Amino acid sequence: MSKELVAVVGIGQTKHVAARRDVSIAGLVREAARRALDDAELTWADIDAVVIGKAPDFFEGVMMPELYLADALGAVGKPMLRVHTAGSVGGSTALVAANLVAARVHSTVLTLAFEKQSESNAMWGLSLPIPFQQPLLAGAGGFFAPHVRAYMRRTGAPDTVGSLVAYKDRRNALKNPYAHLHEHDITLEKVQASPMLWDPIRYSETCPSSDGACAMVLTDRAGAARAPRPPAWMLGGAMRSEPTLFAGKDAVSPQAGKDCAADVYRQAGIADPRRDIDAVEMYVPFSWYEPMWLENLGFADEGEGWKLTEAGVTELDGDLPVNMSGGVLSTNPIGASGMIRFAEAALQARGQAGEHQVEGARRVLGHAYGGGSQFFSMWLVGSEPPDA
Amino acid sequence: MMREIAVIAFAQSDTLRSTAEVSEVEMLMPVLHDVVAQTGLKTADIGFTCSGSCDYLAGRAFSFTLALDGVGAWPPISESHVEMDGAWALYEAWTKLLSGDADTALVYAYGKSSPGSLRDVLTRQLDPYYVAPLWPDSVALAALQAQALIDAGDTDEPELATIGARSRATDNPRAQLKGPVPQGDYLVRPLRTGDCPPIGDGAAAVVLAAGERARELCERPAWIRGIDHRIEAHSLGVRDLTDSPSTRLAAERAGAFERPVDTAELHAPFTSQEVVLRKALRLDDSTRVNPSGGALAANPMMAAGLARIGEAAARIHRGESDRALAHATSGPCLQQNLVAVLEGDPR
After folding, report:
1. A64 contacts A347 by C-beta, under 8 angstroms
2. Smallest CA–CA separation between B275 and chain A, in Å?
3. Fewest 10 Å CB contacts: which of A103, A160, A287, B63?
């Protein structure tokens, strides 16, 4: 069974900010979609289907918003699918769209993910009410902090590593015009002096709440041949899930993440990710997840991830740049954050990332996760199509 | 040449007005066990899993993440979720099998309407700036559509009553409303209680398999000959409520008009919507419509569409149908529609 090749020929995102009070939800998503179409030099009529994703509907208070957004995204008369896989949704949405092309169901698909977090309060939106969770497990930070602490205990990582990641990502964000946080006066000392929120996670080591949307145009070989700018080719993509709560779960390095990465590497023929992959956009909502995911994704041996971070390997000019765009730590419209990772990976592979471009990035990994570290979605994109 | 994919098993729960004593996961578990047992597969044998549900019904964010624990996702599984009726989860799984990434798929869907007031909850589906603040409820919107049909001369109240009575005259043991049910009083004119679906909690699941795998696991697979879905504009003001062009287009793309179907399972929660769908799908009296009772006998939100595909497939499995059409809908007044055409091997 031969699959059709999938190419990214259009990418668009909004300037992410704390509150886009000037646009409706429809206005927000249309802005990103319009930019993706412009990038691909296509019109609404060229799109065969729309695949949309976002995290909980409660964030905006709109149930199944794809119904209301059908007009804004030019979907009337077309198929429209709505994906929801918690924080990994932006990545999963892109993969569902890519599969429509790979399976030859459609030639050209618009995929988009968004969140307008200013419509609500994510901190409390993510605090499930009693009796569904224990009290005082406030927000995502409260859930993930114990896992970070477990990582530190397990690996002996010094407690300075988290602030290095935050300092790096916030500096990278200064080179990305779409990033939410542009902290021009950022210093390592400022990160380290920021208040402790959920020990060991400090204020400056957490992601912001953003309004934003991200869109991509995915197409087949014929569509790629017509594209005005270099496409990024999908070399592999996978999703994996495991239960939220069970005794055998390793919350520090979940098996689903390892399996997902292994599947992507198998598809793409990657033998040694550290050597064969040039850059990574990974889902790091709290700074310590960079060293944790470096291990989970196979870029470092167990217990060694923090050493790569500490040695500067993951800096923009390092040997394996991570989160060149500034990452989730600088921009977090939750439902869109995964797709931004996928899109930024594609931008790098196309050589279109501007000031935060990694020279010679040929194979770039986009990574997303969600729920209680239980949903994973990843893709590897390249500047060249996969070998036939 | 497209890969052949079939529905090989279907299971569903009873649909009940309230299931306060069980969680969503507890409601779902027996259905998952049932459908997988029918195939002899184990969870670890399933290539892809996809579900459909909606957080808003349970009233909490990420409600679906807990359901995954019930699937037994260990070792980790290839899995996805749509915040839509499970019929669209089946569509996603179908494309996954088409691309050759998996040979089998588990699709499930569930919804509990009992935690809230469903008519109020569904208003949150509407345009959040101009319409939702007015809280027009789902029955009122359906009544607008029904009145438009009556005004156009497409139906009348006695015909609607006949549809309601026929739907409830089902021997489906899983149905919530069955037997003679009075037409009832007006709920919102021109719709009476007998024209409206019962509000219920329930779950449904199917297993898909590709090619030879389907023949190994099922005596008479229900082959998916075509499946397509289309969405219309959201605003009721720009739609002709007496017609369903999205259903017609989806049916055409699914190949429904190539040959007549003997069975049609339609997701028409209101009697008046069956009138619209029959016209769009060009169904006449030669087609048996909704032998299961359809959504008028049991309408578990998010599972009712998947159950239509499952019911159609089960009739093919049992040899009661050779070519069946299944339909699912989403959104106010049939805004989004999916059509699948299923066939059994020639006998």
Report:
1. no
2. 21
3. A160
Tens digits of residue pLDDT in A329-361:
999 999 999 999 999 999 999 999 999 999 999
**Ramachandran angles phi, psi of A314, nearest 5°:** -90, 5
Residue A238 to residue B78, Cβ atoms within 8 A: yes
Residue B252 in tokens: 């055409």
Q: Does residue A41 come out as left (phi exceeding 0), alpha (psi in the -120 to 50 range) or beta?
A: left
Say if strands A279-281 and A375-382 run parallel, antiparallel, or are unpaired: unpaired
Q: Which member of B84, B98, B235 has the closest CB to residue A103?
A: B98
Q: Which two tokens stand for residue B130?
A: 């101009």
With an 8 Å Cβ cutoff, are A24 and B129 in contact? yes
Q: Which of B30, B54, B84, B39 is nearest to B338 (CA)?
A: B84
Q: Between residues B59 and B244, which one has the greater pLDDT? A: B244
Q: How far apart are the first and last CA of chain A?
A: 13
For the full predicted model, state whether its pTM sits above 0.90.
yes
Half-sphere exposure of A332 (CA within 13 A, CB side): 22
Stretch 265-304 of chain B: residues touching chain A, C-beta under 8 Å: none
**Residues 105 through 164 of chain B touching chain A, CB cutoff 8 Å:** 121-122, 124-129, 132
Helix, strand counts (H, E) of chain A? 14, 11
The string of pLDDT tens digits covering residues B241-283 is 999 999 999 999 999 999 999 999 999 999 999 999 999 999 9
Q: Is pLDDT above 60 for A290? A: yes
Name the region of B255 (left: φ>0; alpha: ψ -120 to 50; beta: rest).
left
The per-residue pLDDT of chain A, averaged, comes to: 95
Q: How many CB atoms lie within 10 A of CB A255?
A: 17
Main-chain dihedrals φ then ψ at residue A239, nearest 5 degrees: -125, 145
B164: enclosing H helix or E strand: helix B157-168
3-state secondary structure of B140: helix
A40 within 8 A of A14, measured Cβ to Cβ:
no
Residue B347 pLDDT greater than 90, yes or no: no
Q: Give CB contacts under 8 A, 24+ apart, made by B146-149.
A: B146/B190, B146/B191, B146/B195, B146/B270, B146/B271, B146/B272, B147/B189, B147/B190, B148/B241, B148/B242, B149/B241, B149/B242, B149/B272, B149/B275, B149/B276
Span A234-285, pLDDT tens digits: 999 999 999 988 889 999 999 999 999 999 999 999 999 999 999 999 999 9
Quote the pLDDT of residue A2. 81
- Give the span between the Cα atoms of A262 and B161, in whole angstroms: 58
pLDDT at B162 over 60: yes
Residues A257, A369: contact at Cβ < 8 Å?
yes
Answer yes or no: is pLDDT of B72 > 90.
Answer: no
Q: How far apart are the C-alpha atoms of A231 and B246, rounded to whole Å?
A: 33
Q: To which residue do tokens 């019911």 refer?
A: B311
Q: What is the pLDDT of residues B278-314, one digit of tens each?
A: 999 999 999 999 999 999 999 999 999 999 999 999 9
**Burial group, residue B253, by CB count within 10 angstroms (0-12, 13-18, 19+):** middle
